[in-house]
Amino acid sequence: MIIQLKRDGVRKLLNLYGRYSLILFIVFLSSILDAGSFENFQPTREIAFVGSNDKDDSDFIKKLKTNWISYRVVKSESLYERAKPKALSSVTSRRDRAKGPRIGFDIEANDEDSNLTKKPVKAEIKKLKEKDVYVDFFGTELAFNIPNGLKDASYQPRNQKGIVNFFVVSSASDYTQISEYILEVSKELNLNDWGIYLLTDKISKEIFTNIDEANLFDLLIFNKLKYRTRVGISNKKIYIFFHMNEIIYDTPNCRIDGKNYYSFSNSTTITNISTYNDDYHDANNSFNLSLESLPKFKKDIRTKELSFSEYGKKYTIKYRYNQNLLDFMSRYPQANEEVFLNAPMDQMSLRDIAFSMKKNLNNVQASETINFLLHFVQDAFKYEIDSIQFSKQKMMFAQETLYYDKSDAEDRVVLFSYLVKKLLNINTLGIKYANHYTSAIQIPISGDSINYLNKKFIIADPSYKGANIGKGIAKYRSKQPLKIVAVLKKDI
What we know:
Blueprint: H1 2-49, H2 55-64, E1 69-72, E2 74-75, E3 133-137, E4 140-144, H3 160-172, H4 176-189, H5 193-207, H6 211-224, E5 229-234, E6 237-243, E7 252-256, E8 259-263, E9 272-275, E10 301-310, E11 313-322, H7 323-330, H8 337-341, H9 347-358, H10 366-379, E12 382-383, H11 386-389, H12 398-403, E13 406-407, H13 409-424, E14 428-432, E15 437-441, E16 449-452, E17 455-460, E18 483-487
Parallel strand pairs: 12-13
Antiparallel strand pairs: 1-9, 2-7, 3-4, 5-6, 6-8, 7-8, 10-11, 14-15, 14-18, 15-17, 16-17
Helix pairs in contact: 1-3, 2-3, 3-6, 4-5, 5-6, 10-13
């Protein structure tokens, strides 16, 4: 009976549309059926066809197949509790009686270009025609091959199963040659964790044009490098979260197993992620944003001239800098203050500034030398809050503060503290209030002060224009600081 009905239906179609039209209809119907089943069919075929030869990868794929848990994502606290003032107080500059011994700058005698590569790194490949991809990484040309089968990995379907499919295919390729290449370049360029992240992300986006697939490849590499990470899905998009022990301000983060995980995506729309609840084998490295020594990027030397006045006399300071290093710093997330206050400056820039200033500081006493540095930071840059200059909060490295024509309180504290520590061998403090940052120095003179570890530090405010050491802004004198960061050159 059913056969007869089907035959009658076909006969009616033939009568209505003709045999040729019926053939087109059957082809069209087949394409619809294939399209509907392709999403489920192809990943299944890939999983059956390939598999990882690495036990750690195989175990990780099993973890990805487990039931995932939803976690709330929140934005971390801001650097300040209250909005920073758009303008700060100033006083008429007045020369105080000189105090202290006569001191000179402690200029290190090491090579001024020690943080710059003098020859191509080993990882820099000149025979680009023999490589699949080459990229410019802050002035260094890098070239590498894409392992066979890696580009077959895709995030389809756009859910947990798609993540499993991506890792099944990608881990079956010889992707470890990429992780080994990243390690080699990182050592040659002296990259910290943030530098490794930027390098990995740069390479991933050269291999995968889809941002979600590039993020998944980032995770594959950081798993292999033994960083504690999580991949999360939110609205079908992929986000990578890194375990960190220190805070990153104004950054999406979530707590998993009592640990803080941060995302560098800067997305303000993430409210929840779904993720697995276990680590890749032996992946117990926390991501660390400390910048204890500078990357060895290629030279892109430029010059800048800064002018300032002290007691009515104008001075000009000229220095050189490496643009590639500045470009790297401009990509930095809003790490905690310790990172910026303890990071080094390009030795070439520091030496230029020191020698330029030294000729104006012959045979002067300690207080005059320190005030000269303080007035330089106060007057050489226009005060401007970050929300106006950058449309976001941005704490700057000392190198960046030198470069930008405008800066605000915390940026000047970073620059002044570094100059005092490196050139005069004096301990300093970074002192944070609800909406202001100032500094203090460990010298035996009178004036506004703060106690730290039972030691007296004299206030020196790099944003209080015209003020000498020992004079702070009046409204902060009676307030307790929210945080004190020690920038130590020697034991206190």
